[in-house]
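I would love for you to help me understand the pair of lines that follows before we discuss the fold together.
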Amino acid sequence: MQMKKAVSVLLAMILCLSFFTGCGEDEGVFYTSVEALPETLDPQLAQNDAECLIAVNIFMGLFRRGEDGTAQPAACESYKVSSDGLIWNFTLKDGLIYNDGTDEKEATPVQAEDYAFALKRVLAKDSTSPWAGTFSGIARDENGNPIVFSTGKKSLTIQLVQPDESLLLKLCCPGAMPCQKGFFEACEGAYGLDTKTVLTNGAFRISLLSEESGITLRRIDTKEGYLDKIRLLLMENSEEQQILSGSFTQGVPEYETPLYHVQTCILRINPQYSQLADRGVRAGLAGVMYQNLISSEQDGVSTAGGLIADSVRLGEISWRQIAGNLMAEALPQDPVTSFREGLVREGKNKLSGVTVLVPDTEEWHVRYDSIAIQWQQQLSAFFSVEYLPEEEIVRRVNQGDYQLAFYTHRAQDESVTAELEVLARQFGIQLSEVVLPQEEALPQDQTDENTQTAVDTAGGEPEVEQEEAINPQSQTVLQAIDFTAVYATQTREQQIQALKAAELTLLSNCVAVPLYTVTEYYAVETAFSHISVSPFGPMLDFYQALWSEE
């Protein structure tokens, strides 16, 4: 998804998520803080936290995110998926209307074409929508137009380039909210500039929007026990309202705390630096570090099993739960020998002039001291250390101005496929070729029409065609395959193997080595319940939110 937040401090992470409380005469009102007022109410252009929060509550998509993070039907009555996973047909519920009439007879009906038109806007050639990347997996026709269309008032069809188990979650995001074409065109370019130039169909409406007073959302059909009023205040004005902004890396006992796992502490090793160019050297540093990680005494901090955080999913199941801990397979069993052999290949007997960048917090000081001792004792590797704010370390890593650097990576997408691609780009590693056991490779005869279409649409022929095994006698023969083609055409088990191989490719290069995962908590006052919270976005959905005086 596109709601992505950078982190700067590991154990006191400050986000545009919020802590909520009822305040005096406003008891029962849900308060949260936002960075800025919305610049648009157009859901296809929604980008900042306020815009996205508003969009998912004043509009109703085909699906909404449930409390457990899974996609739940909203405007969608049912759906079907073709056997190859490329064609999705959705049927809308009866009686859906926009909030533009005093009764159902006066209101504009919500139709399948409105959802199709919204996605067409997102994927238009001249689109500036921040959600274009989210829906880039939608196929296009020979003219470059997205293949999304309605067949009747209630039926919507979406064709994909390749199977996408996270499509339903993507349809929860602001970019997938309906847009009525006639109303949009009648606005003549002013759509979404104010409450009068947007046609909504959600459970809430905007009753107040000002820089001084913030934003107020009210439920359209008040129901007993349901949360009726939401206040969004600018962070600079929220302190006087007794709102404590931020999510937490330690739970708040007196409050209900939904939790998620999106942070991974990592070591980046720059392969462009001559002394770290040999993989054996990098693997030695990584292996010694990982084998000797200290046990954390802080709740919610545990040794990482891979680069992919626990909240990243394959479909609706945690990828870490499926793949397990891959570190033993990715790193050498004898890292000391790997390190020494790497130095020999480079014509050296030790590393010199290497500087390590470490976040300037107490927790990182303790962690690095423990790691440095092991590097010194086992590898005779002595490095200079520079303690910096974590945002400065991230900036230098992004510019390539580092040798060794510790920092916290925050997952950018809840789809494992998308997150692997994000990491591959960040680390400069190609995933067009990964290795799998021979029995998991693409069959020689798999060149039917469906397979060819999926590969061609994704960007041409695979870079590496099928070849015979190099050593048929070996039980551990590896064969190079095209990552996208395998994921698009194979069984679920083979897809899992391909995704594991892709993560192992990233891990085995030893340019990024995970240390710990960190649990985040999002505190909600116990009077409020059934609020959908997500680290990926939409962050807060209040459709089923309840409030109790007790």
